[in-house]
Each structure stands twice: as C-alpha cells, then as structure tokens.
Backbone:
C-alpha cells in the first residue's frame, strides 16, 4: 500500500460530520421494559421452533411393529417409570447398535412410529445405558428368569451391577414382567409367544410344576431346591427310539448338524482353565458355584438348571454331546432360563466352557484344584441317540436348508424352538399332543393372537387413540433374528 | 470523601470508592451523576431473604451430595443398601439430579439474586422482603415433598422433570412470585440504569418458569401424585419437549444466573469496572436467541426429525458466540488482577467455577456434533459433562458466592479460612478426579459398544473407574460437610473480635468477611 506520507490511514477524511448522534452507551442502555418484553420475545422464537414446530409438523405414521399394551402391561409400565428403570435402560435402539452387529440384543432400529398413542407416555428414551436397552428386549428371556432377575440380578447374571428390587410385591413383579415381555411391539410378542409355547412343552416334557409367580420362589430354601431337583420331576411315560423324556426334547431343540459334533478344541490345561474362568464369570448364578444347580436362581426357575456334577450326564448322557452343549450356550434353550450367550461370548470361549463342563464331575470346579486334562470325561453317544440319528438322518438337512414358507414369521419362530426338526418330523408328547413344526407354528400363532387381542381389547377399553388405524392389527410381525 | 454519601446511596458503591465511582461513570456515563445524586443513604441492606435462601442451600447441598455418594457406591458395590426401596439406585439418582438443580443451585441462586438486587437497585431491601423469606420456607417444604414423592415411587419418570405434578405447579408459582418481587423492586429502584446482572436476574426466572411449565406439560395433569402425569400423548413428542425443557434448565436458568453472578462478583471483589457494556449486550441477546433451541442434542441418535437435530447441533455450536463474548468480558475485566485469584478465596471459587464453565461449553459444542455424538452417546461421557457443568461450574461458583456473601449478610467473618481452603481443594481435586474417571470409563463404553460388545461385557472394565469415582465423590462429600460446618460455626460463634483484628492486618487472604457492611 502506498505511503500517503501523512501517517494516517484515511487521508481522504474531510472535516467533522454535521451532528453527533447519541453516544453508543446511551443508545444501548437496557430499560426494564426492554429486558422484560425483549426477553420474552427472544425466548418465544426459539421455543416456537424447537418445542412447538415438532408438535405441529412431525406426526409420523404408526410403524408396522407397533402393538398396544395390555392392562397388566400398563400397570407394569407405571412400576417401570416409578422406580426409575430408565436411568440405566434406554428406550430406543440406535442405528449404530444394529451396525455394530448387536443383532440379538437390538434386532431393529427404533422408528418414530413406535412411539405413538398414550401407551408411550411418558417417554422412556433415557440418557444412559448402564444396562442394555430394553425397547427390543421382549421374549429374549422367559418370565421366571425375569422374576429371579428382579429379586437379585446377580442370581442369574453374576456380572450385573443392577440393584436388587426384592421390595416389589408379587403383583408388581408380574405386571412389570408383562410389560417387559410385550413392550417391543409385534416382533417382541412373537418372541414372547414362542417362549410361552416352549415353556408349556418344557413343563410337560420334564413333568414339573409351573414356575412360582412373583417372588414366591424366594421363600424356598436351598434344601427345597435340592429336593425338587431330585424328586420334583415326573416326566411323561413313553420313549422315542429308546430315549426317555425330556431327553428327546433337549435333542430336538438343537440343530441336527450339532447332534454328534465333537469339540474342535483340544483338551489342554489352558483351554480348561479358560473355560472354568468363563463358567465362574457367567454360569455359577444359576448352575451354582459347585456346578450342582443348587443356587438362589434355581428357586425361581422351572425347568431347573442342569446339574453338571452327575458323571453319567457329563459322560454318557443322551443329550450332552459337545455340539449340543455348544448350541445351547450359543443360542439358549427356548422355554428355559438358559440364555443365548452367543450375544456376549466368543465362540472359542463357548467351546472352552463346553470342554470344561466335562471335568466338573471329577473336581474341575474344586477351589483347591486346577482342572487338568485327566479330569476330562470323553462323551460316548448312547445307542438311543445313534438310532435316532439313523432315523432322522442328517442328509435330510438338504431339505431343511431349503425353507418352505420362509416369509411366514410363525414358521421361523417354530424353527427357533424346534431347531432340530425337519418339516415332516412328527412325534407325540404324552400329555401335550403332537410335537412338530406345523403344530408349533399353529400353537405359537394362537398364543400370539391371544396376546395381541388382549392388548387391543384393553386398548379400546381405555379409549384408544384416533391416530392408530385398526388395520394396524392385521400386519404380520417379522421374525428378525436370522435363524437360518 | 466528599461525595461518599452519594456514592453509597447507589448501593453499588463501596466506601473504598477509588475506582468504584469511575466504574459507574465509565459504565453509565453522565447518567450516574443524575441518578445517584438523590435518595436516602443506605448503609445496610435487609438481606433476611438472602439469609434463608442461602442457609437452606447449604443444607440441601449436604443432602444432595449424600444421595450422590449413595448412588456412586451402588455402582461400584451393587449389593450395598440391598433391598431398601428408597435407597435403590434408580430412585436415589433422580433425587440427586433434581436436588442439585432445584434444591442446592436454585436456592443458592435465589439467595444471590436477593442479595444482589437491593445493592444494584439502590434499595434497602426487596420490594417485599418478607415475601422473599416466606417463599424460601415454602420452597424448602415443596422440595422436601418432591423428594419424598420420588423416593416413594411417585416419580413422573421424565428425566430432570421427575417431581410429581403438584410440585411442578408449586415451583412455578414460587418462581412467579419471586420474579414479581424482583420486578416490583425494579420499579421502586433508586439507581436508574440497570446493571448487567439485573438483566439476567429479571429475564432468567421468566424464561425458566415458562420452560418448566411447557416441559412438564402442566396442562395435562393425569394422575396427580403418580404417573403418568404431565406428559404429552405420543412418546416421541414427549421426549422432544422433555429434552428441550431439560436443557433450558441449564441454558435459561443456571447459565444466566452464573453470568449475572460472575458479572456482579468479579467487578465487586476486584474493585474493577466491567470491561465492556457492548459485550454484555452480545452475551445477553445472543444467549437467549441461541440457547432455547439446543435441547434436542441429547437425543441426536433417536428417531426424531432431522431438521430438529440440525437446529440443535448448529445452535449448540453457535452458543460459543455469546459465551465467548462473556468470557472475553470477564477476562478483560480481570486484566492486571490475577494475583488476587491466589489471595482472595471467594474470587478463587468464582473464577474456578467460571473456568470450568468455559470448558463445559467447549465440550458441549464438541459432543453435540453428530460424528462425535455417535461415539459417546449413552455413555458416562454425558455424566462427566453434566458434572463439569453442575459441579465444576455452578457448584464451585456457588461456594464462592456463599463465602463472599455469608460474612456480609451475617455481619461477621467466616469461622475458618483454613477450612474453606480445604473445601476448595477437596472439591476441585475431587471433581477433577471424578471427571477423569467417568470420561475414561465413557471411552471404554463407547469403544466397546461400537466394537459390538454388549453392555454387560463392558461392566468389568468399568469397575475400577466406578470405585475411583466413588472415592472422588467422597472428597466432594467431605467438602460439603466442611462447608456446612464452617458456615454453621460462623453463625453460632462470636467472631466479631477476630474480625476487628484481621481488619487491621490488611491481609488479603483473610478478606473473607473482613469488609462487611462497608462494602454496602
């Protein structure tokens, strides 16, 4: 820039203006009226945009998954709200949950249309996730698991830091359980219906009483548990290829390609130790710290957890091959409190746990010992199982992989329960009736419709909402966990 | 000293009028000469309302930190308090959260407002001092009833809005009455120009009252003392208005009064005029235009409309404009005065809170941006952020207010400056440790979840940080007990002799309470 030689920036400035304006400080003095009215105006504009535009312009249509809550679930929701469950358990799944592959916990991304009608008020969005999100949790656990978990979460999940809600009344426990089991819409109802159907089959096949409701189970003692485990079951008569109930059901719950599968990992000290570590982290809640299934959780659970200390069961049981145990840990057992640990364990760790289970009868869980390879019991398939495999040959799985009706969610749900069944397999369970995929599909569908109808009836009883068309009821659920 | 009577008449002028008069002259120009020239001489203010509000806040601070330490213990040791319904984590947490905002900080803020208002307006007391006192007692009762409601399971279950419906209504009524009292005091003021702090003290209660009214959906009572009540019909709408209102508690109540308090106490303690009137205007109008639309950044990952998320994100970053105007103003006011940060304890509290408040704004702008929010959403990062604001920022500021104001309103120096020093370091370091622990835990959570680990698998890695967090909470809790002990001893002890002794020594660090009524 040329130097003007004047030392000033603006040599063209000519003289003074005609008059001085008011001093800026005086112009900008704030009067009370300005603060009051200006403050209200300045508040109203962003409030209109951020708080009221969404009410005026954002009315998402109801999502296909939405289903109304039953009256009991509404009561359960009040318990949920009053006890502040939402501070650890958020109420919507995010895109990144599904992207991260947490499909068993979060099978779908929440939609705006999931939160319509008075059923979703007050909102339960939550701000932190110390525990898992519960918006899609329905049907992943049976009711008796939920009861034991409310009584003390460490009973069924030793790593949990959730507080105990042992002060609930039985009615509150039942309502809250109902709410959790139906809050996830139709997908959740389908999973819950599968659990209920499977529970009915399990109860009959094991010949046991229904699980105690509420916190009634907590009144039992550990001796009662031991007694129940020894004398409490009265399985139905009859055998399937020489196998007594409930062994066939335990086998049918496992995909048949696993029936005779052996453990891919070698029996080494390291593998056994790692298996024991995982067992003590995750499994001792229900199966007991001695592996004998005498535990606090067992008071609530029917069927009871499995006793691993029986040498016969570990070595020559009909339904305890490495592959079957692996499958049960991976996917859980429908109708029992056994969870799908595939959500939270690596597959190699599951195989190690399965290795370790076979050392428990020989003192693998003894606190003074380290599991060694000579404690391991090699499993031998019993004759009955071999005969069963011969009659339900694995080659038929060619047909099994080609699903008929792959879009029918009820068929998929039935396959989730009876994973070992082929389309035309059919057995008779005394006291229950036919055990087949078709019967399971019809049974699950009936329970599903019953749950849905109850929700809709209660919904209309309490007034309903004009924003939800009744045709919503007929949209089918989706079975979102890919079981193929 | 000729014009000292006229200076004192304004109520804003210290007897040590060097700079003070210049402050008003520079600030208000020739207005000062006209407005402060008449009126009665006011040497002492009534302050009975400020006494009750501040004393109550000290009590509630102990209560809410008790609940804080209880819930921190339960996270580290889940079997603690096994089966006690009203101490279960999920019921104690809302008491801690609501208590910090509505019991401790709100009562401290109303104490500060009722302390500042007569001094800035040149009146002896509030328009109706008894109304202020009476409302403080009622407010205590209302808060206690609200805690009872939450602990016995009558919570509304909407975060930061858990108080049952009648409590919401009562809080709104009390705020309206207090705002009315302030406005009437303004109408009978002796100093015509309104100082910056008064703008906030007038406007912020109006904003937050309106916000509480809308957020709590007071027009939909539902079940009066239970849930569901005070919620919109559709959960998605309810969530959006819930979070919009939640953030307004910070943006339209805690932040504005923090600004008012900083704008009052820093010039007052350092005896320096505020640097710029214009920057004050920028921060005032900018803050309200921007801050009332950021709440939805809490639910950026939820199925809410994209335009609302965009507004929330953009405004959360745009907040930096008004708050940087505020920061600049305060830093330029503090020029050449930083030695007093080390020698004057109330000033140190106020500046420390102010600096943490700067950090919380930077952090908040960062975490309201979608890519980073994906990483930290639902983690402890949010807990760290809110403690940076509410503990590091507003609480430490409030301790400065207490240590400056209590000697004035009780007319004696505080019992022990050594204890106050202990409190400062315990709370500051306790908070820093807490913040570090939860932030590290948050990154463990965020990283684990995005890698596909379910929540329960991440818990063992959090155990250590939960324990450290509890220990850090214990330091803060000790600070709370030191504060109540120190201030109760101040109240019950006769420290006037010590005051005279200290006043003659001219020792700045013992200035806590050594210049009481002379500072008006």
Residues:
């Amino acid at each position: 820039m040329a130097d003007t030689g004047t030392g000033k920036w603006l040599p063209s400035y000519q003289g003074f203006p005609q008059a001085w304006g008011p001093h800026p400080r005086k112009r900008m003095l704030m009067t009370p009226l300005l603060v009051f009215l200006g403050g209200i105006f300045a508040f109203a504009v962003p409030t209109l945009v951020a708080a009221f535009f969404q009410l005026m312009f954002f009315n998402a249509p109801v999502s296909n998954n939405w289903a109304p809550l039953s009256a009991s679930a509404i009561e359960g929701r009040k318990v949920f709200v009053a006890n502040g469950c939402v501070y650890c358990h958020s109420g919507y799944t995010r895109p990144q949950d599904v992207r991260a592959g947490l499909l068993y916990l979060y099978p779908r991304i929440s939609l705006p249309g999931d939160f319509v009608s008075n059923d979703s008020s007050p909102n339960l969005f939550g701000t932190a996730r110390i525990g898992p999100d519960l918006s899609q949790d329905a049907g992943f656990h049976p009711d008796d698991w939920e009861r034991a978990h409310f009584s003390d979460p460490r009973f069924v999940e030793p790593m949990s830091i959730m507080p105990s809600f042992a002060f609930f009344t039985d009615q509150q426990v039942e309502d809250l359980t109902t709410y959790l089991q139906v809050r996830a819409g139709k997908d959740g109802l389908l999973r819950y219906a599968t659990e209920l159907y499977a529970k009915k089959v399990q109860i009959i096949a094991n010949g046991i009483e229904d699980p105690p409701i509420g916190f009634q189970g907590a009144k039992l003692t550990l001796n009662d548990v031991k007694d129940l485990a020894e004398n409490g079951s009265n399985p139905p008569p009859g055998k399937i290829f020489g196998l007594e109930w409930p062994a066939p059901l335990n086998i049918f719950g496992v995909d048949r390609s696993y029936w005779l599968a052996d453990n891919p990992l070698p029996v080494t000290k390291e593998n056994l130790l790692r298996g024991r570590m995982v067992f003590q982290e995750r499994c001792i809640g229900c199966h007991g710290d001695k592996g004998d299934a005498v535990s606090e959780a067992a008071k609530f659970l029917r069927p009871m957890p499995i006793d691993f200390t029986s040498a016969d069961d570990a070595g020559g049981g009909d339904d305890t091959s490495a592959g079957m145990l692996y499958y049960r840990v991976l996917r859980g057992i429908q109708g029992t409190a056994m969870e799908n640990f595939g959500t939270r364990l690596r597959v190699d760790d599951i195989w190690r746990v399965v290795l370790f289970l076979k050392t428990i009868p020989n003192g693998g869980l003894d606190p003074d010992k380290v599991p060694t390879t000579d404690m391991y019991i090699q499993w031998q398939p019993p004759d009955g199982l071999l005969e069963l495999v011969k009659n339900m040959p694995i080659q038929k799985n060619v047909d099994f992989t080609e699903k008929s009706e792959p879009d029918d969610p009820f068929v998929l749900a039935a396959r989730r329960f009876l994973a070992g069944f082929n389309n035309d397999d059919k057995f008779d369970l005394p006291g229950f009736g036919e055990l087949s995929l078709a019967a399971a599909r019809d049974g699950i569908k009936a329970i599903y419709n019953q749950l849905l109808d109850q929700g809709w009836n209660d919904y209309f009883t309490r007034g309903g909402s004009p924003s939800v068309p009744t045709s919503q009821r007929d949209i089918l659920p989706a079975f979102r966990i890919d079981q193929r | 000293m000729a014009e000292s009577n006229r200076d004192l008449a304004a109520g804003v002028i210290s007897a040590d009028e060097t700079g003070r008069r210049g402050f008003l002259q520079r600030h208000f120009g020739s207005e000062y000469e006209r407005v402060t020239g008449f009126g009665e001489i006011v040497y002492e203010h009534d302050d009975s309302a400020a006494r009750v509000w501040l004393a109550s806040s000290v009590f509630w601070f102990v209560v809410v930190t008790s609940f804080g330490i209880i819930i921190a213990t339960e996270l580290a040791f889940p079997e603690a308090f096994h089966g006690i319904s009203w101490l279960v984590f999920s019921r104690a947490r809302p008491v801690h959260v609501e208590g910090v905002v509505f019991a401790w900080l709100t009562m401290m803020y109303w104490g500060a407002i009722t302390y500042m208002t007569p001094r800035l307006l040149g009146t002896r007391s509030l328009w109706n001092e008894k109304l202020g006192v009476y409302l403080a007692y009622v407010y205590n009762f209302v808060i206690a009833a609200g805690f009872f409601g939450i602990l016995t399971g009558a919570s509304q279950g909407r975060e930061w809005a858990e108080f049952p419906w009648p409590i919401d209504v009562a809080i709104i009524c009390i705020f309206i009455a207090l705002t009315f009292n302030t406005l009437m005091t303004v109408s009978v003021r002796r100093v015509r120009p309104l100082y910056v702090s008064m703008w906030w003290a007038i406007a912020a209660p109006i904003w937050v009252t309106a916000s509480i009214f809308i957020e709590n959906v007071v027009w939909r009572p539902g079940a009066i003392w239970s849930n569901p009540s005070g919620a919109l019909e559709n959960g998605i709408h309810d969530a959006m208005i819930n979070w919009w209102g939640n953030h307004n508690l910070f943006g339209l109540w805690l932040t504005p009064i923090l600004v008012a308090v900083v704008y009052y106490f820093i010039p007052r303690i350092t005896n320096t005029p505020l640097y710029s009137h214009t920057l004050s205007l920028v921060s005032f109008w900018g803050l309200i235009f921007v801050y009332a639309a950021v709440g939805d950044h809490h639910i950026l990952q939820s199925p809410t409309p994209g335009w609302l998320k965009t507004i929330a994100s953009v405004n959360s970053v745009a907040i930096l404009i008004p708050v940087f105007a505020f920061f600049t103003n305060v830093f330029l006011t503090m020029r050449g005065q930083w030695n007093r940060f080390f020698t004057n304890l109330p000033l140190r509290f106020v500046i420390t809170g102010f600096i943490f408040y700067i950090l919380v704004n930077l952090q908040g702008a960062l975490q309201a941006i979608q890519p980073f929010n994906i990483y930290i959403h639902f983690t402890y990062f949010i807990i760290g952020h809110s403690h940076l604001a509410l503990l590091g920022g507003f609480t430490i500021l409030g301790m400065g207010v207490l240590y400056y104001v209590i000697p004035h309103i009780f007319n004696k120096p505080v019992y022990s400056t050594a204890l106050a020093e202990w409190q400062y370091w315990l709370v500051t370091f306790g908070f820093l440790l807490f913040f570090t622990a939860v932030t590290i835990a948050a990154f463990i959570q965020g990283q684990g979840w995005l890698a596909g680990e379910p929540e329960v698998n991440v818990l063992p890695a959090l155990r250590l940080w939960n324990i450290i967090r509890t220990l850090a909470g214990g330091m803060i809790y000790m600070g709370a007990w030191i504060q109540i002990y120190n201030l109760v001893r101040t109240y019950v002890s006769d420290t006037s002799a010590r005051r005279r002794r200290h006043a003659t020594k001219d020792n700045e660090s013992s200035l806590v309470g050594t210049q009481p009524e002379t500072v008006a």
About this structure: Chain A touches chain B through 87 residues (CB under 8 Å). The CA atoms of residues 275 and 349 of chain A lie 7 Å apart. The longest strand of chain A covers residues 426-429. Residues 1-13 of chain A have pLDDT under 50 and may be disordered.
